[in-house]
Write a structure and sequence with these properties.
The complex is a heterodimer of chains A (611) and B (351). With 611 residues, chain A is α/β, with parallel strands linked by helices. Chain A has 19 helices and 24 strands. Chain B has helices at residues 5-13, 38-53, 68-71, 90-100, 112-117, 120-129, 173-180, 193-205, 231-236, 287-299, 317-321, 333-336, 339-349, and strands at 60-64, 81-84, 105-111, 133-139, 142-143, 149-150, 184-189, 209-215, 238-240, 242-247, 262-266, 272-277, 303-310. The longest helix of chain B is centred in the first third of the chain and has 16 residues, at 38-53. Classes of the chains: A alpha/beta (611), B alpha/beta (351). The complex binds thiamine diphosphate, iron/sulfur cluster and magnesium ion.
Chain lengths: 611, 351
Amino acid sequence: MTPVTATNDFVVKFANVNGSGSASANEMFARSVMRMGIPISPRNIFPSNIQGMPTWYELRVSKDGWLGRRGGCDLMVALNPQTWDRDIAELVPGGYLVYDSTRELPRSKFREDITVIGIPLTAICAQEFTDPNQRKLFKNIMYVGALAALMDLELGVVETLIGEQYRGKDKLIEGNRNAARIGHAYAMKHFTCPLGIRCERVDGVGDRIFIDGNSAIALGAVYAGATVAAWYPITPSTSIIEAFTGYCRKFRTDPATGAARYAIVQAEDELASIGMVAGAGWNGVRAFTATSGPGISLMQEFIGLAYFAEIPLVIVDVQRGGPSTGMPTRTQQSDVLLCAYASHGDTRHVLLFPEDPNECFELTAQAFDLCERLQTPVFLMTDLDIGMNERLSAPFRWDENRHYDRGKVMTAAELDAGKLFARYQDVDGDGIPWRTIPATHPSKGAYFTRGSTRNAQAKYSELGSDYVYNLERLRRKFNTAKELVPQPVVTPAAKPTRLGVLFYGSTSPAMAEALAMLQAEGVHVDAIRVRAFPFSSQVDAFIEAHDTVFVVEQNESAQLRTLLINEGEYSPKKLVKVLHYDGTPITAGFIAGAIRTAGSAAKLAPQQSHG
Amino acid sequence: MTYLAKPRLLADVQPRNAIGFTKRDYEGAISTLCAGCGHDSVSAAIVQAFYELDIEPHRVAKMSGIGCSSKTPDYFLGASHGFNSVHGRMPSVATGASLANRELTLIGISGDGDTASIGIGQFAHAMRRGLNIAYIVENNGVYGLTKGQFSATADKGSKSKKGVQNADAPIDLVALALQLGATYVARSFSGDKDQLVPLIKGALRHQGAAFIDVISPCVTFNNHSGSTKSYDYVREHNEAVNRVEVIQPRQEITTEYEPGSVRRVMQHDGTALLLRKLGLDYDPTDRNRAMNQLHEWNAKGEILTGLLFVEEGADDLHHHLNTVAKPLNQLTQAELCPGQAVLDKLNAALR
Ligand SMILES: Cc1ncc(C[n+]2csc(CCOP(=O)(O)OP(=O)(O)O)c2C)c(N)n1
Ligand code: SF4
Ligand SMILES: [Mg+2]
């Protein structure tokens, strides 16, 4: 078997034991590649345990800039005896295995069709360092040094990154650099460097930034002026509030007094989180919570109240695999229906689907404008794949002329000027009523908020006509939302085609690659990326313009497709399911494969359903 | 329009408080509760308390859950914003409202079902966080709105109207509030307005978690003999530990007290609580002793009422969070948004 040869185009995977300190070393390796101008996309694969369990860090290096998961593995750094067998099995034929050869392993533990690179990491560390802690930690940075040699990474880049990471801690910088050099020297001495897979400096990254979606959401919330966050810890959403806390401390501390221009409360559960956010939104601040599926399940009653009482608030749902506790540390787009129709009665909610960290920032900021403009809960639907992995994306921008849209809030001056205030009356014809914030005016504009039916003046009413007026106004309001929400992005195929594909959220990078693959094969597919629910009229136009539309999703029951059929009344036969739901991020190969098979059949019989 | 003249004339002869409001300005919609319901008396006491404290109605927010009791915020302070939320979850909504505007006076109205049954979790956490609120439970031992099922405060052995005995141990919300760190804890009776009004005033002036358990009989489902939450039973078994007088910062003390009979407790805003001891030897500033005495009297089937505990110089949630003095809902975009220059730096650090 000939060893794999590839420059700037391969997958490296690190198999580690959770809690061994490997995470920062792996990330340093990834950043080193990125600093050489080569596009990367890493993914953390981790169990729902803290210590001692296996974790993997999978890094795709792609000179063409494909950021979706590729699958397969060209080089495995196998440092976890527990998962050894499956890690070895995952290598492609001709792949490379790097392992700690301190302890000898029987031949049967290896494969014949791979290149094996044994580095006695533990032994070298034992020899070089006396402190047991250092022995453990420097092992990680040592394999980064060795990999640099094996894969032609510039050692200088690694050293610069070490300097940045431990800025101000000279001892740590020196220690880590030294360990990296030891690893580098060992590899240079014992192996033919570089291997068949290697890196070469290019200019493929541009001005893009490298950040995880959860941090981007936190930053978006800061820029949007969110001041109240209430939450309850749950993977994969927790790091949003952690990052929000960090950014707030930095950017929202009153310089004169040291006091906080924000309030973050770790609530006792998700019922309380959403309750606090509702109370805060009602009282005129921008407030949000971040959670995942189980949290949304608990919040149902309050979401209905916020919908019916028309309270602006933002809910971030970083989706993971359900039902129940499901696959808590794996990615899925599994809460689309849960959120779209959350709570009892005739409810429907605005959902936004960011594709990457840049859009996490941008759509978070927009979510706050939308929730106040529409006076309703707005859901930001991300997932673990975007949320907890760093991703290359366009840099953040903030237009200095941008003003928060606080929506229809009646002021004391307007009330004094005799402007009519009727809390639930549709004075403007868009279904959106005017609201007042408590304490606005001494004698005008106060009203009673409740989840029960009321008339346009917010007085309790059980009259059918009042109830119907209200429901129909809410429907009107939802229609207004259609054109206010982020509009879809259409990517036409190179040639006119009757085939379309519709997708959303984290499927984006895999989709782009799949489209390129298909086009290279002569299969032309127009693509539409849905960015929000309610669906804009552009989505209708797209579906109408195609005979077959593949709907690509990362859940088992085709949830967005259900939503399309329900809201757009399309023939289910026209919308062909392409579903991926094993908890790993969807790949281009999977999408292209599904479209290739179903697509060729669909061309013969356009009304046939497949998938 | 001449018909306007009459109410104006009427209003003119009504007494006004220091900020020019009549008592009527603190009233709300007409109650839809059963005639004789204890909750209406509590609403009346609330009206009186706000009137006497000279609080502008629009600077108050009325928060509640679901139940007959939770409906009552519609029946007082019609010029205030109100929020009738979901069953058992008023504390979280009030917490959010408080975070958004620390200057707003919050009054929370709940029932024993709303607080001790479905909402016990949120109640507990609001108390331990020091939410700045006057939290009133109108305690009748039953779910009034759903027609008389026992609630979690129903006493063991108390009989329902249909003759069924409650077998479960009761939750004593006062004991719970004390244990959880509430900094103003009182118990009263809807039938004792003289005791209740000053207790509500004190709670409104307290900066921190102020809790009042008001026994408020349900005439329709729990006022029969055999019930331990009936008017008769409570009148016979209630022992007041003190009488409270609330003295506003610039107000003179007019009542005459025998030397040594009164204890003065200062509140953050300069309000003084004058506590006149009654028959019992009772110290309302000692949390542990308060808990002990409460247990002793509970065991005897007697109900201690009055201001059972107050912590001088108490702190609230905003203090713990170190939030700015200006209400968060008044901060401007300039005070909140770091702008592009900061973003440029962040972008650079992410490459
Ligand atoms: C989630 C939910 N469950 C049940 C109910 C029905 N419900 C309404 S009020 C109430 C009990 C109210 O009891 P309490 O708080 O003691 O108030 P009271 O009517 O006695 O004043 C119940 C069970 C509800 N509104 N919401
Ligand atoms: S049912 Fe009971 S609690 Fe409800 S209004 Fe009537 S008397 Fe009051
Ligand atoms: Mg009750």
